[in-house]
């Protein structure tokens, strides 16, 4: 192999000398100078855009995100309106009943993103189990194991440190409990009123009977 390379190099030197009258070293020096001159001359005639570094290209600035809006306490149905389908509304998501504005991560939680199905919902159970099943898209975390609860806690810490909390989800259970207690109290008051009225009626009848008996006894004494 080396023999072939040496033979080719010797042939090339003889050819350069025969056609140019220059030694191989002088020939390659001339070629290098010609290339350098070409680069310099072409730089004067090229447009500035062709030599502009890519890093200095100007891109249109992205629109700044509006500041998070505090919603207070809303229902799960109202939260569904903020799933990213309306670009004019903020992108919201809830963990353990706490609602966060995740608009800055629209590439993940917005339409077409890998976690888009979590938007507009309390996805606590799905995040704890790392599940994308429809049945797990809920805030109910009952029955989860310790590892799943730890994973959910990590997600909650991440959201608390990265996103702004804008509200809470209204709890249906507490509403129902309050209504039940009100109904129970109303029933107890009605029962107490009925018992009181019954007691008064008995007392009035007893007094009336006693008075009649006294009158009858008095009449009987007069007759005697």
UniProtKB/TrEMBL annotation:
What transmembrane ranges does the database entry give? 25-46
Recite the UniProt keywords alphabetically: Cell membrane, Lipid-binding, Membrane, Steroid-binding, Transmembrane, Transmembrane helix
Q: Where does this one sit in the cell?
A: Cell membrane
Cite the Cytochrome b5 heme-binding domain residue spans from the record. 74-170
GO CC list: endoplasmic reticulum; plasma membrane
What is one Pfam family matched by this protein?
A: Cyt-b5
Query: What segments bear the compositional bias annotation Basic and acidic residues?
Result: 171-182, 200-224
Against SMART domains, the record matches this protein to: Cyt-b5
Q: Where is the stretch described as Disordered? A: 171-224
Q: Origin, by domain of life?
A: Eukaryota
Q: Which GO MF terms does the UniProt record name?
A: steroid binding
Q: Where is the composition biased (Polar residues)?
A: 183-199
Q: Which SUPFAM superfamilies match?
A: Cytochrome b5-like heme/steroid binding domain
Family the entry assigns:
Belongs to the cytochrome b5 family. MAPR subfamily.
Q: What is this protein called?
A: Cytochrome b5 heme-binding domain-containing protein
Q: From which organism does this entry originate?
A: Brassica oleracea (Wild cabbage)
Taxon lineage = Eukaryota, Viridiplantae, Streptophyta, Embryophyta, Tracheophyta
């Amino acid at each position: 192999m080396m023999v072939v390379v040496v033979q080719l190099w010797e042939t090339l030197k003889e050819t350069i000398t025969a056609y140019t009258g220059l030694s191989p070293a002088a020939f390659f020096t001339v070629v290098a100078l010609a290339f350098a001159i070409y680069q310099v001359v072409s730089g004067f005639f090229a447009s500035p855009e062709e030599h502009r570094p890519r890093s200095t290209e100007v891109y249109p600035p992205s629109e700044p995100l509006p500041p998070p809006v505090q919603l207070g306490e809303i229902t799960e149905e109202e939260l569904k309106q903020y799933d990213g389908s309306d670009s004019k509304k903020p992108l919201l998501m809830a963990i353990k009943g706490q609602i966060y504005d995740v608009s800055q991560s629209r590439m993940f939680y917005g339409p077409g993103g890998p976690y888009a199905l979590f938007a507009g919902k309390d996805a606590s159970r799905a995040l704890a189990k790392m599940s994308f099943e429809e049945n797990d898209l809920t805030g109910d975390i009952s029955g989860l194991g310790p590892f799943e609860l730890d994973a959910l806690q990590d997600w909650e810490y991440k959201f608390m440190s990265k996103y702004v909390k804008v509200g809470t989800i209204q709890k249906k259970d507490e509403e129902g409990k309050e209504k039940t207690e009100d109904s129970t109290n109303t029933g107890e008051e009605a029962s107490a009123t009925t018992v009181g009225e019954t007691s008064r009626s008995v007392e009035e009848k007893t007094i009336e009977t006693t008075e009649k008996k006294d009158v009858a006894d008095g009449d009987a004494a007069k007759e005697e």
